[in-house]
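Quick bug: Dihydrofolate reductase family protein output formatted oddly.
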Amino acid sequence: MRELVYYAAVTLDGYIAGPNGEFDAFLIEGDHMEGINARFADTLPTVAATALGIPQKRELFDTVLMGWNTYQVGGVPSPYAHLRQIVFSRSRTAEGENLEVTSEDPIAVVRRLKTEEGAAIWLCGGGALAATLADEIDRLVLKRQPLLFGSGIPLFGERPYRPEQFDAVETVAYDSGVVFTELERRREG
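Here's what came back:
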């Protein structure tokens, strides 16, 4: 069965973007970029990977999920054209290569995707969508940035108090101050 992986950059105080969706303070240069480009090439926007000569083989991810606000940040119709892109919106539409906008329940979509053949499913964001899909997330890959935002869009939006355990798989610290932490959901029994 395919996994749902929430792969996101996050500040030390738990934000994936500023109050108005700002993300330009995140470090995009430094020794951590080599790790992203090597292992997580599928998470680079298609145009950027092409410009950098980085092959995207769809081996790690072949599908990306986004809320509307995350999708529209890039300002291009198909930011991850090399992947199947599913954008959740109740009121908006868009067209682009390998792009689907749906008002369908995200949980139902993820459960259906998990039964299909393929690579892992990347939950790109945002925080409200992550909160909705929290019970479906199998793995977290967090790029913890050496930044404080003070306020903004949290890694997980509003959800009821219910502690859930994840186990550490790997942690890699870079000289840039960025720390990659990979965790998997603890399965009881």
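Actually, after a second look the formatting is fine. Residues 106-115 form the longest helix (10 residues). Closing.
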